[in-house]
Protein backbone atom coordinates (compact mmCIF):
# COMPACT_ATOMS: atom_id res chain seq x y z
CA UNK A 1 0.00 0.00 0.00
CA UNK A 2 2.81 2.38 0.94
CA UNK A 3 4.66 1.78 -2.32
CA UNK A 4 1.48 2.43 -4.29
CA UNK A 5 0.79 5.66 -2.45
CA UNK A 6 4.35 6.82 -2.89
CA UNK A 7 4.37 6.05 -6.61
CA UNK A 8 1.27 8.17 -6.95
CA UNK A 9 2.77 10.93 -4.88
CA UNK A 10 5.85 10.99 -7.07
CA UNK A 11 3.73 11.57 -10.15
CA UNK A 12 1.42 14.11 -8.59
CA UNK A 13 2.20 17.81 -8.51
CA UNK A 14 1.22 19.35 -5.22
CA UNK A 15 -0.44 22.69 -5.53
CA UNK A 16 -0.98 25.27 -2.88
CA UNK A 17 -2.64 28.49 -2.13
CA UNK A 18 -2.84 31.85 -0.56
CA UNK A 19 -4.19 32.08 2.97
CA UNK A 20 -5.29 34.85 5.22
CA UNK A 21 -2.68 37.34 6.37
CA UNK A 22 -1.32 40.68 5.34
CA UNK A 23 -1.08 41.24 1.59
CA UNK A 24 1.97 42.88 0.04
CA UNK A 25 2.05 46.05 -1.95
CA UNK A 26 3.77 46.01 -5.31
CA UNK A 27 6.87 47.61 -3.79
CA UNK A 28 6.90 45.11 -0.90
CA UNK A 29 6.56 42.22 -3.35
CA UNK A 30 9.41 43.58 -5.46
CA UNK A 31 11.64 43.99 -2.42
CA UNK A 32 10.88 40.56 -1.01
CA UNK A 33 11.42 39.08 -4.46
CA UNK A 34 14.87 40.68 -4.60
CA UNK A 35 15.60 39.41 -1.10
CA UNK A 36 14.56 35.92 -2.09
CA UNK A 37 16.71 35.98 -5.21
CA UNK A 38 19.69 37.12 -3.17
CA UNK A 39 19.11 34.35 -0.65
CA UNK A 40 18.89 31.71 -3.38
CA UNK A 41 22.11 33.01 -4.91
CA UNK A 42 23.79 32.91 -1.51
CA UNK A 43 22.53 29.36 -1.00
CA UNK A 44 24.51 28.18 -3.99
CA UNK A 45 27.77 29.31 -2.37
CA UNK A 46 29.94 26.96 -0.34
CA UNK A 47 29.49 27.27 3.44
CA UNK A 48 32.35 28.45 5.59
CA UNK A 49 32.65 25.07 7.32
CA UNK A 50 32.91 21.40 6.50
CA UNK A 51 29.55 19.62 6.93
CA UNK A 52 29.73 17.09 9.74
CA UNK A 53 32.84 18.65 11.29
CA UNK A 54 33.15 21.11 14.19
CA UNK A 55 33.03 23.91 14.98
CA UNK A 56 30.26 24.90 12.62
CA UNK A 57 31.17 28.56 12.98
CA UNK A 58 34.62 29.98 13.62
CA UNK A 59 33.08 32.93 15.46
CA UNK A 60 30.22 32.61 18.00
CA UNK A 61 26.83 33.19 16.41
CA UNK A 62 23.29 33.29 17.82
CA UNK A 63 20.19 31.88 16.10
CA UNK A 64 16.67 32.65 17.31
CA UNK A 65 14.14 29.81 17.02
CA UNK A 66 10.47 29.94 17.98
CA UNK A 67 9.22 26.62 19.34
CA UNK A 68 6.07 25.17 20.96
CA UNK A 69 6.52 23.83 24.49
CA UNK A 70 4.12 21.64 26.45
CA UNK A 71 3.35 21.88 30.14
CA UNK A 72 5.30 18.65 30.62
CA UNK A 73 8.61 20.24 29.59
CA UNK A 74 10.42 20.60 32.90
CA UNK A 75 13.30 22.65 31.53
CA UNK A 76 13.73 25.25 28.86
CA UNK A 77 15.50 23.80 25.84
CA UNK A 78 18.41 26.14 26.39
CA UNK A 79 19.00 24.58 29.81
CA UNK A 80 19.35 21.02 28.55
CA UNK A 81 22.88 19.76 29.20
CA UNK A 82 23.31 18.00 25.87
CA UNK A 83 22.38 21.15 23.94
CA UNK A 84 24.64 23.37 26.05
CA UNK A 85 27.56 21.01 25.40
CA UNK A 86 26.69 20.93 21.71
CA UNK A 87 26.61 24.73 21.53
CA UNK A 88 30.15 24.86 22.90
CA UNK A 89 31.22 22.29 20.33
CA UNK A 90 29.64 24.15 17.41
CA UNK A 91 30.08 27.81 18.40
CA UNK A 92 26.37 28.20 17.66
CA UNK A 93 24.08 29.47 20.41
CA UNK A 94 20.32 29.02 20.12
CA UNK A 95 18.04 31.59 21.66
CA UNK A 96 14.76 29.70 22.08
CA UNK A 97 11.49 31.62 22.06
CA UNK A 98 9.26 29.11 23.80
CA UNK A 99 5.51 29.43 23.32
CA UNK A 100 2.80 27.37 25.01
CA UNK A 101 1.51 24.63 22.72
CA UNK A 102 -2.04 25.77 23.40
CA UNK A 103 -1.29 29.24 22.01
CA UNK A 104 1.18 28.25 19.31
CA UNK A 105 -1.20 27.80 16.36
CA UNK A 106 -2.27 31.42 16.58
CA UNK A 107 1.12 32.77 17.64
CA UNK A 108 3.14 31.51 14.70
CA UNK A 109 0.61 32.88 12.19
CA UNK A 110 0.60 36.30 13.85
CA UNK A 111 4.39 36.31 13.94
CA UNK A 112 4.66 35.57 10.23
CA UNK A 113 2.05 38.20 9.40
CA UNK A 114 3.85 40.82 11.50
CA UNK A 115 7.14 40.42 9.67
CA UNK A 116 9.01 40.54 13.01
CA UNK A 117 10.54 37.13 12.48
CA UNK A 118 12.74 34.71 14.39
CA UNK A 119 15.50 33.02 12.41
CA UNK A 120 13.57 29.74 12.30
CA UNK A 121 10.45 28.00 13.53
CA UNK A 122 11.17 24.75 15.37
CA UNK A 123 9.58 21.31 15.45
CA UNK A 124 6.84 19.99 17.69
CA UNK A 125 4.01 21.45 15.62
CA UNK A 126 2.68 20.62 12.15
CA UNK A 127 2.71 23.98 10.37
CA UNK A 128 0.08 24.57 7.71
CA UNK A 129 1.77 24.02 4.32
CA UNK A 130 -0.39 26.66 2.67
CA UNK A 131 0.83 29.26 5.13
CA UNK A 132 4.43 28.21 4.57
CA UNK A 133 3.99 28.45 0.81
CA UNK A 134 2.26 31.83 1.01
CA UNK A 135 5.11 33.41 2.94
CA UNK A 136 7.73 31.56 0.91
CA UNK A 137 6.35 33.20 -2.25
CA UNK A 138 6.58 36.56 -0.47
CA UNK A 139 10.23 35.88 0.35
CA UNK A 140 9.83 35.54 4.13
CA UNK A 141 10.55 31.79 4.22
CA UNK A 142 13.65 30.61 2.39
CA UNK A 143 14.13 27.53 0.18
CA UNK A 144 16.34 24.88 1.76
CA UNK A 145 17.37 22.83 -1.28
CA UNK A 146 20.83 24.28 -1.82
CA UNK A 147 21.55 24.49 1.89
CA UNK A 148 20.69 20.81 2.26
CA UNK A 149 23.13 19.95 -0.52
CA UNK A 150 25.96 22.17 0.69
CA UNK A 151 25.66 22.18 4.48
CA UNK A 152 24.24 18.89 5.76
CA UNK A 153 25.27 15.28 6.02
CA UNK A 154 22.29 13.42 7.49
CA UNK A 155 19.49 15.40 5.87
CA UNK A 156 21.13 15.12 2.46
CA UNK A 157 21.82 11.41 2.97
CA UNK A 158 18.26 10.55 3.95
CA UNK A 159 16.65 12.80 1.37
CA UNK A 160 18.76 11.09 -1.29
CA UNK A 161 18.19 7.61 0.13
CA UNK A 162 14.44 7.94 0.75
CA UNK A 163 13.19 9.60 -2.40
CA UNK A 164 9.57 9.47 -1.22
CA UNK A 165 10.40 11.79 1.68
CA UNK A 166 12.14 14.26 -0.62
CA UNK A 167 9.09 14.26 -2.89
CA UNK A 168 6.71 14.69 0.03
CA UNK A 169 8.77 17.64 1.26
CA UNK A 170 8.87 19.39 -2.13
CA UNK A 171 6.43 22.23 -2.80
CA UNK A 172 4.73 22.95 -6.14
CA UNK A 173 7.50 25.28 -7.32
CA UNK A 174 10.08 22.54 -6.83
CA UNK A 175 11.60 23.83 -3.59
CA UNK A 176 11.80 22.35 -0.10
CA UNK A 177 10.75 25.01 2.38
CA UNK A 178 10.25 22.93 5.52
CA UNK A 179 11.71 19.75 6.97
CA UNK A 180 9.63 16.89 8.37
CA UNK A 181 9.99 14.80 11.47
CA UNK A 182 10.16 11.11 10.60
CA UNK A 183 9.41 8.37 13.11
CA UNK A 184 8.54 5.00 11.61
CA UNK A 185 7.93 3.33 14.96
CA UNK A 186 5.12 0.83 14.36
CA UNK A 187 3.99 1.33 17.94
CA UNK A 188 2.65 4.79 17.05
CA UNK A 189 0.79 3.97 13.82
CA UNK A 190 -2.35 4.55 15.88
CA UNK A 191 -2.36 7.71 17.93
CA UNK A 192 -4.79 7.53 20.84
CA UNK A 193 -6.20 4.31 22.24
CA UNK A 194 -8.84 3.39 24.79
CA UNK A 195 -7.53 3.16 28.35
CA UNK A 196 -9.28 1.88 31.47
CA UNK A 197 -8.53 2.34 35.16
CA UNK A 198 -7.49 -1.21 36.10
CA UNK A 199 -7.44 -0.24 39.79
CA UNK A 200 -11.12 0.70 39.65
CA UNK A 201 -11.97 -2.33 37.52
CA UNK A 202 -10.41 -4.70 40.06
CA UNK A 203 -12.10 -3.01 43.02
CA UNK A 204 -15.43 -3.45 41.28
CA UNK A 205 -14.65 -7.08 40.47
CA UNK A 206 -15.55 -6.56 36.81
CA UNK A 207 -14.09 -8.06 33.65
CA UNK A 208 -12.41 -5.98 30.96
CA UNK A 209 -15.18 -4.55 28.73
CA UNK A 210 -15.42 -5.96 25.22
CA UNK A 211 -18.24 -3.71 23.96
CA UNK A 212 -19.20 -0.05 24.29
CA UNK A 213 -22.31 -1.07 26.23
CA UNK A 214 -20.15 -3.03 28.69
CA UNK A 215 -17.91 -0.01 29.11
CA UNK A 216 -21.04 1.99 29.93
CA UNK A 217 -21.99 -0.55 32.61
CA UNK A 218 -18.54 -0.18 34.14
CA UNK A 219 -18.72 3.64 34.05
CA UNK A 220 -22.12 3.57 35.77
CA UNK A 221 -20.58 1.78 38.73
CA UNK A 222 -17.52 4.04 38.73
CA UNK A 223 -19.62 7.20 38.81
CA UNK A 224 -21.86 5.94 41.62
CA UNK A 225 -19.17 4.45 43.87
CA UNK A 226 -16.48 5.96 46.09
CA UNK A 227 -13.51 3.93 44.90
CA UNK A 228 -10.68 6.17 46.12
CA UNK A 229 -12.07 6.81 49.60
CA UNK A 230 -12.56 10.56 49.31
CA UNK A 231 -16.26 10.38 50.09
CA UNK A 232 -17.60 11.02 46.58
CA UNK A 233 -18.18 9.03 43.36
CA UNK A 234 -15.46 9.03 40.73
CA UNK A 235 -15.10 10.59 37.29
CA UNK A 236 -16.28 8.45 34.38
CA UNK A 237 -14.66 8.86 30.96
CA UNK A 238 -12.34 11.85 30.87
CA UNK A 239 -9.94 13.21 28.26
CA UNK A 240 -8.36 16.47 27.16
CA UNK A 241 -9.74 19.12 24.83
CA UNK A 242 -7.24 19.19 21.96
CA UNK A 243 -6.26 22.31 20.05
CA UNK A 244 -6.85 22.74 16.29
CA UNK A 245 -8.35 19.26 15.99
CA UNK A 246 -11.83 17.80 16.23
CA UNK A 247 -12.94 16.67 19.67
CA UNK A 248 -11.54 13.39 20.98
CA UNK A 249 -15.16 12.24 21.05
CA UNK A 250 -14.78 11.72 17.31
CA UNK A 251 -12.43 8.78 17.97
CA UNK A 252 -15.36 7.06 19.69
CA UNK A 253 -17.65 7.78 16.76
CA UNK A 254 -15.81 4.97 14.97
CA UNK A 255 -17.75 2.55 17.16
CA UNK A 256 -20.77 3.67 15.14
CA UNK A 257 -19.01 3.16 11.80
CA UNK A 258 -17.66 6.62 10.99
CA UNK A 259 -13.98 7.54 10.86
CA UNK A 260 -13.25 11.23 11.30
CA UNK A 261 -10.00 12.46 9.82
CA UNK A 262 -8.27 15.10 11.91
CA UNK A 263 -7.30 17.49 9.09
CA UNK A 264 -10.20 17.12 6.66
CA UNK A 265 -13.19 15.95 8.76
CA UNK A 266 -13.75 13.41 6.01
CA UNK A 267 -14.73 9.75 6.41
CA UNK A 268 -12.85 7.07 4.50
CA UNK A 269 -13.74 3.42 4.24
CA UNK A 270 -11.29 0.57 3.63
CA UNK A 271 -11.36 -0.61 0.05
CA UNK A 272 -12.76 2.56 -1.53
CA UNK A 273 -11.51 6.04 -2.39
CA UNK A 274 -14.98 7.57 -2.13
CA UNK A 275 -15.02 9.94 0.85
CA UNK A 276 -17.86 11.50 2.83
CA UNK A 277 -18.12 14.55 5.05
CA UNK A 278 -18.18 12.82 8.44
CA UNK A 279 -20.12 15.46 10.45
CA UNK A 280 -23.19 15.07 8.19
CA UNK A 281 -23.38 11.27 8.29
CA UNK A 282 -26.23 9.44 10.03
CA UNK A 283 -23.62 7.40 11.89
CA UNK A 284 -22.44 10.64 13.47
CA UNK A 285 -25.97 11.42 14.62
CA UNK A 286 -26.28 7.94 16.15
CA UNK A 287 -23.02 8.48 18.04
CA UNK A 288 -24.12 11.88 19.31
CA UNK A 289 -27.43 10.48 20.54
CA UNK A 290 -25.67 7.63 22.33
CA UNK A 291 -23.10 9.78 24.09
CA UNK A 292 -25.72 12.35 25.07
CA UNK A 293 -27.35 9.59 27.10
CA UNK A 294 -24.02 8.89 28.75
CA UNK A 295 -23.64 12.61 29.43
CA UNK A 296 -27.09 12.80 31.05
CA UNK A 297 -26.18 9.85 33.29
CA UNK A 298 -22.97 11.53 34.38
CA UNK A 299 -20.70 8.95 32.73
CA UNK A 300 -18.77 11.64 30.84
CA UNK A 301 -16.60 14.28 32.48
CA UNK A 302 -18.24 17.64 31.63
CA UNK A 303 -14.72 19.15 31.43
CA UNK A 304 -13.89 17.05 28.35
CA UNK A 305 -14.57 20.12 26.21
CA UNK A 306 -12.31 22.45 28.19
CA UNK A 307 -9.53 20.73 30.17
CA UNK A 308 -5.95 20.58 28.93
CA UNK A 309 -3.50 17.69 29.23
CA UNK A 310 -2.05 18.96 32.51
CA UNK A 311 -5.46 19.19 34.14
CA UNK A 312 -6.39 15.73 32.88
CA UNK A 313 -3.20 14.20 34.22
CA UNK A 314 -3.61 15.81 37.64
CA UNK A 315 -7.12 14.38 37.86
CA UNK A 316 -6.27 10.93 36.50
CA UNK A 317 -3.13 10.47 38.59
CA UNK A 318 -4.55 11.37 42.01
CA UNK A 319 -8.34 11.06 42.13
CA UNK A 320 -8.52 8.65 39.22
CA UNK A 321 -10.79 8.54 36.18
CA UNK A 322 -12.75 5.56 34.95
CA UNK A 323 -11.53 5.53 31.34
CA UNK A 324 -9.94 7.72 28.69
CA UNK A 325 -8.85 8.04 25.09
CA UNK A 326 -5.14 8.82 25.37
CA UNK A 327 -1.76 8.23 23.74
CA UNK A 328 -0.53 6.01 26.57
CA UNK A 329 -0.50 5.61 30.30
CA UNK A 330 2.09 8.36 30.86
CA UNK A 331 -0.60 10.79 29.71
CA UNK A 332 -2.70 9.72 32.68
CA UNK A 333 -0.51 8.79 35.65
CA UNK A 334 3.07 9.51 34.55
CA UNK A 335 3.88 5.86 35.10
CA UNK A 336 3.16 6.08 38.82
CA UNK A 337 0.81 3.15 39.33
CA UNK A 338 0.82 3.30 43.12
CA UNK A 339 -2.61 4.98 43.15
CA UNK A 340 -4.23 4.46 39.75
CA UNK A 341 -3.12 1.84 37.24
CA UNK A 342 -4.27 2.29 33.64
CA UNK A 343 -4.29 -0.36 30.93
CA UNK A 344 -5.01 -0.39 27.20
CA UNK A 345 -8.34 -1.83 26.16
CA UNK A 346 -8.61 -3.85 22.99
CA UNK A 347 -10.89 -2.35 20.36
CA UNK A 348 -14.49 -2.37 21.56
CA UNK A 349 -17.56 -3.30 19.54
CA UNK A 350 -20.15 -0.60 19.06
CA UNK A 351 -23.89 -1.13 19.65
CA UNK A 352 -24.30 -2.55 16.14
CA UNK A 353 -20.94 -4.39 16.23
CA UNK A 354 -19.23 -1.53 14.38
CA UNK A 355 -15.48 -1.22 14.79
CA UNK A 356 -13.63 1.65 13.11
CA UNK A 357 -10.65 3.57 14.49
CA UNK A 358 -8.65 6.48 13.15
CA UNK A 359 -5.09 5.95 11.86
CA UNK A 360 -2.29 8.51 11.63
CA UNK A 361 -1.71 10.06 8.23
CA UNK A 362 -1.33 8.69 4.75
CA UNK A 363 2.19 7.45 5.52
CA UNK A 364 2.37 6.87 9.29
CA UNK A 365 5.46 8.33 10.87
CA UNK A 366 5.97 11.14 8.37
CA UNK A 367 5.09 14.49 9.99
CA UNK A 368 5.42 17.18 7.37
CA UNK A 369 6.40 20.83 7.85
CA UNK A 370 8.16 20.70 11.19
CA UNK A 371 11.08 23.12 10.75
CA UNK A 372 11.67 26.11 8.46
CA UNK A 373 14.00 29.07 8.16
CA UNK A 374 13.01 32.71 7.63
CA UNK A 375 14.54 35.56 5.68
CA UNK A 376 15.63 37.14 8.98
CA UNK A 377 18.23 34.38 9.36
CA UNK A 378 21.75 35.56 8.53
CA UNK A 379 23.16 32.05 9.07
CA UNK A 380 20.91 29.57 7.25
CA UNK A 381 23.77 27.14 6.48
CA UNK A 382 24.84 27.02 10.11
CA UNK A 383 21.22 26.62 11.22
CA UNK A 384 20.70 23.53 9.07
CA UNK A 385 24.09 22.12 10.04
CA UNK A 386 23.20 22.59 13.72
CA UNK A 387 20.03 20.51 13.52
CA UNK A 388 21.45 18.04 10.98
CA UNK A 389 23.64 16.39 13.62
CA UNK A 390 20.56 15.22 15.54
CA UNK A 391 18.82 13.64 12.55
CA UNK A 392 21.12 10.63 12.12
CA UNK A 393 18.64 7.72 12.44
CA UNK A 394 20.82 6.51 15.34
CA UNK A 395 22.13 7.53 18.77
CA UNK A 396 21.93 11.29 18.24
CA UNK A 397 18.28 11.09 17.25
CA UNK A 398 17.60 9.01 20.36
CA UNK A 399 19.35 11.52 22.60
CA UNK A 400 17.33 14.34 21.04
CA UNK A 401 14.11 12.36 21.53
CA UNK A 402 14.68 10.49 24.80
CA UNK A 403 17.75 11.95 26.53
CA UNK A 404 21.22 10.52 27.19
CA UNK A 405 21.98 6.81 26.93
CA UNK A 406 21.41 5.08 30.25
CA UNK A 407 18.73 7.51 31.42
CA UNK A 408 15.54 6.61 29.58
CA UNK A 409 17.01 4.30 26.92
CA UNK A 410 19.98 1.96 26.69
CA UNK A 411 21.58 -0.81 24.68
CA UNK A 412 20.95 -4.42 25.68
CA UNK A 413 23.52 -7.23 25.80
CA UNK A 414 22.15 -8.56 22.50
CA UNK A 415 23.05 -5.31 20.73
CA UNK A 416 19.50 -4.01 20.51
CA UNK A 417 18.29 -0.91 22.30
CA UNK A 418 15.24 -0.37 24.44
CA UNK A 419 13.33 2.33 26.25
CA UNK A 420 13.63 2.09 30.01
CA UNK A 421 10.56 2.04 32.22
CA UNK A 422 12.52 3.54 35.13
CA UNK A 423 15.18 6.23 35.34
CA UNK A 424 18.46 5.51 37.20
CA UNK A 425 16.99 6.69 40.52
CA UNK A 426 14.48 3.84 40.27
CA UNK A 427 11.52 6.17 39.73
CA UNK A 428 9.13 5.50 36.84
CA UNK A 429 10.05 7.40 33.68
CA UNK A 430 7.63 10.27 33.12
CA UNK A 431 7.25 13.06 30.60
CA UNK A 432 8.50 15.52 33.21
CA UNK A 433 11.67 13.70 34.19
CA UNK A 434 12.38 12.75 30.56
CA UNK A 435 12.25 16.40 29.50
CA UNK A 436 14.87 17.23 32.10
CA UNK A 437 17.31 15.79 29.57
CA UNK A 438 15.62 15.71 26.15
CA UNK A 439 13.72 17.94 23.75
CA UNK A 440 11.09 15.20 23.30
CA UNK A 441 11.03 16.13 19.61
CA UNK A 442 10.46 19.85 20.17
CA UNK A 443 12.69 22.42 18.51
CA UNK A 444 14.90 20.00 16.56
CA UNK A 445 13.26 17.34 14.36
CA UNK A 446 14.41 13.77 14.84
CA UNK A 447 14.54 11.12 12.13
CA UNK A 448 14.25 7.44 13.05
CA UNK A 449 13.40 5.06 10.22
CA UNK A 450 11.96 1.56 10.23
CA UNK A 451 15.39 -0.08 10.08
CA UNK A 452 16.45 1.62 13.30
CA UNK A 453 13.19 0.83 15.11
CA UNK A 454 13.71 -2.78 14.04
CA UNK A 455 16.80 -2.76 16.25
CA UNK A 456 14.68 -1.90 19.28
CA UNK A 457 13.52 -4.55 21.69
CA UNK A 458 10.40 -3.62 23.62
CA UNK A 459 10.87 -4.54 27.28
CA UNK A 460 8.42 -2.27 29.12
CA UNK A 461 5.12 -4.00 29.87
CA UNK A 462 3.09 -0.91 28.97
CA UNK A 463 4.75 -0.62 25.55
CA UNK A 464 4.24 -4.33 24.89
CA UNK A 465 0.56 -3.95 25.78
CA UNK A 466 0.24 -1.00 23.44
CA UNK A 467 1.91 -2.86 20.60
CA UNK A 468 -0.23 -5.95 21.12
CA UNK A 469 -3.41 -3.85 21.20
CA UNK A 470 -2.47 -2.03 17.99
CA UNK A 471 -1.39 -5.13 16.08
CA UNK A 472 -4.10 -7.41 17.38
CA UNK A 473 -7.03 -5.06 17.32
CA UNK A 474 -6.86 -1.37 16.35
CA UNK A 475 -4.83 -1.57 13.13
CA UNK A 476 -7.23 -4.19 11.79
CA UNK A 477 -10.15 -1.74 11.85
CA UNK A 478 -8.30 1.47 10.92
CA UNK A 479 -8.91 2.71 7.37
CA UNK A 480 -5.99 4.43 5.63
CA UNK A 481 -5.27 7.88 6.98
CA UNK A 482 -6.02 10.90 4.82
CA UNK A 483 -3.45 13.48 3.68
CA UNK A 484 -3.33 17.19 4.40
CA UNK A 485 -3.94 18.25 0.80
CA UNK A 486 -2.65 21.41 -0.82
CA UNK A 487 -4.83 22.94 -3.54
CA UNK A 488 -4.29 24.99 -6.66
CA UNK A 489 -4.25 28.68 -5.95
CA UNK A 490 -7.59 29.44 -7.63
CA UNK A 491 -9.42 26.91 -5.40
CA UNK A 492 -7.39 27.05 -2.24
CA UNK A 493 -8.70 30.39 -1.07
CA UNK A 494 -12.25 29.12 -1.57
CA UNK A 495 -11.52 25.89 0.32
CA UNK A 496 -9.82 27.73 3.16
CA UNK A 497 -12.67 30.19 3.58
CA UNK A 498 -15.16 27.32 3.72
CA UNK A 499 -13.05 25.22 6.08
CA UNK A 500 -12.47 27.95 8.66
CA UNK A 501 -16.13 28.62 9.42
CA UNK A 502 -17.37 25.11 8.71
CA UNK A 503 -15.04 23.30 11.11
CA UNK A 504 -15.56 25.87 13.85
CA UNK A 505 -19.31 25.37 13.60
CA UNK A 506 -19.03 21.57 13.60
CA UNK A 507 -16.80 21.60 16.69
CA UNK A 508 -19.25 23.80 18.58
CA UNK A 509 -22.19 21.61 17.60
CA UNK A 510 -20.52 18.41 18.82
CA UNK A 511 -20.39 19.97 22.27
CA UNK A 512 -23.98 21.18 22.00
CA UNK A 513 -25.39 17.83 20.86
CA UNK A 514 -23.57 15.78 23.48
CA UNK A 515 -24.53 18.21 26.22
CA UNK A 516 -28.12 19.01 25.22
CA UNK A 517 -29.17 16.15 22.98
CA UNK A 518 -30.23 15.58 19.37
CA UNK A 519 -33.76 16.04 18.02
CA UNK A 520 -35.13 15.93 14.48
CA UNK A 521 -35.52 19.67 14.58
CA UNK A 522 -32.04 20.62 15.75
CA UNK A 523 -30.41 17.97 13.54
CA UNK A 524 -32.20 19.31 10.45
CA UNK A 525 -31.26 22.83 11.45
CA UNK A 526 -27.66 21.64 11.77
CA UNK A 527 -27.71 20.01 8.31
CA UNK A 528 -29.18 23.16 6.80
CA UNK A 529 -26.43 25.21 8.39
CA UNK A 530 -23.83 22.80 6.96
CA UNK A 531 -25.39 23.41 3.54
CA UNK A 532 -25.19 27.17 4.06
CA UNK A 533 -21.54 26.83 5.08
CA UNK A 534 -20.90 24.89 1.84
CA UNK A 535 -20.02 21.53 3.36
CA UNK A 536 -20.83 19.86 0.03
CA UNK A 537 -18.37 22.12 -1.78
CA UNK A 538 -15.68 21.40 0.81
CA UNK A 539 -16.20 17.65 0.32
CA UNK A 540 -16.17 18.08 -3.46
CA UNK A 541 -12.86 19.93 -3.42
CA UNK A 542 -11.23 17.49 -1.04
CA UNK A 543 -12.42 14.51 -3.08
CA UNK A 544 -11.13 16.10 -6.29
CA UNK A 545 -7.58 16.58 -5.02
CA UNK A 546 -7.59 13.29 -3.16
CA UNK A 547 -8.45 11.53 -6.43
CA UNK A 548 -5.62 13.36 -8.19
CA UNK A 549 -3.16 12.28 -5.54
CA UNK A 550 -4.38 8.69 -5.57
CA UNK A 551 -4.23 8.57 -9.36
CA UNK A 552 -7.96 8.10 -9.80
From TrEMBL:
UniProt xrefs under Pfam families: SBP_bac_1
InterPro entries: Bact_solute-bd_prot1, SBP
Keyword Acyltransferase: no
Domain of life: Bacteria
Signal peptide positions (record): 1-21
Record's keyword terms, sorted: Cell membrane, Lipoprotein, Membrane, Palmitate, Signal
PANTHER family (alphabetical): ARABINOSE-BINDING PROTEIN-RELATED, POLYGALACTURONAN_RHAMNOGALACTURONAN-BINDING PROTEIN YTCQ
Descriptive protein name: Lipoprotein LipO
Organism: Eisenbergiella tayi
Amino acid sequence: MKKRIISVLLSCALITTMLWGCGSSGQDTQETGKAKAAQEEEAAAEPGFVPGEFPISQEPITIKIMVPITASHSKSLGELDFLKEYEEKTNVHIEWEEVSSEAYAEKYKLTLASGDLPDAFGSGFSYDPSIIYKYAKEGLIVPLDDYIESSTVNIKKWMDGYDEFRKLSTYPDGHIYALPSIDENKNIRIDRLLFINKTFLDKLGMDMPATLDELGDYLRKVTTTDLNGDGKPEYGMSFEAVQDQPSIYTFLFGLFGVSWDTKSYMHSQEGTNQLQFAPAMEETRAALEYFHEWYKEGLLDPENFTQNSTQLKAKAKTEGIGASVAFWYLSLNDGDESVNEYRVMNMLEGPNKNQVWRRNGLIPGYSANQFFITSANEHPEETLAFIDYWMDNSDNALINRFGPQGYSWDYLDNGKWTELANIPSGEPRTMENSTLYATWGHGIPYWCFADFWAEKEITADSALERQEAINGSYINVAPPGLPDLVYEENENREALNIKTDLFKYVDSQIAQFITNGVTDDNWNEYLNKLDNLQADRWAELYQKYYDIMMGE
